[in-house]
């Protein structure tokens, strides 16, 4: 099945687009999607979403079809055909 992933800022630079169609199996979760994206896009992507010392996914917002989910608490949320997943990382700086 296909889901659309929207990325911004550093992640957009890493994946090369602001939106990508991503092929996953029915029943896969947010966790699967993020881990799979880490494998596909490498250390640069992984360093954006994971703690450098523990390897755990850091807190940030995810939207599925406009509904807010938390990266730490909602990783086991299943995805469905046509879902739009938006990755909202916090911005550094001032």
Oligomeric description of these chains: single chain
Largest sheet, spatial ordering of strands: 2-1-5-3-4
In helices, the fraction of residues equals: 25-40%
Q: Mind telling me the CATH superfamily name?
A: Beta-grasp domain
The fraction of residues in strands falls at 15-25%
CATH topology: Ubiquitin-like (UB roll)
Q: Which runs of at least 5 residues are low in confidence (pLDDT < 50)?
A: none
Indicate the overall shape: globular
The CATH architecture category equals: Roll
* Mean pLDDT rating: 91
Distance between the termini: 40 Å
Task: Please state the structural category.
Answer: alpha+beta
In CATH's first tier, which class applies? Alpha Beta
Give the ordered list of helices and strands: EHEHEEE
How would you characterize the overall build of this protein?
A 5-stranded mixed beta sheet has the order 2-1-5-3-4, with no helix packed on it. The longest helix is centred in the middle third of the chain and has 20 residues, at 30-49. The chain has 94 residues and is α+β, with helices and mostly antiparallel strands. It is 29% helix and 24% strand. Helix 1 (9-15) packs across helix 2 (30-49). The chain has helices at 9-15, 30-49; strands at 2-6, 19-23, 61-64, 67-70, 84-88. A hairpin with a 2-residue loop joins strand 3 (61-64) and strand 4. The chain has a single domain, classed as Ubiquitin-like (UB roll), CATH 3.10.20. The mean pLDDT is 91.
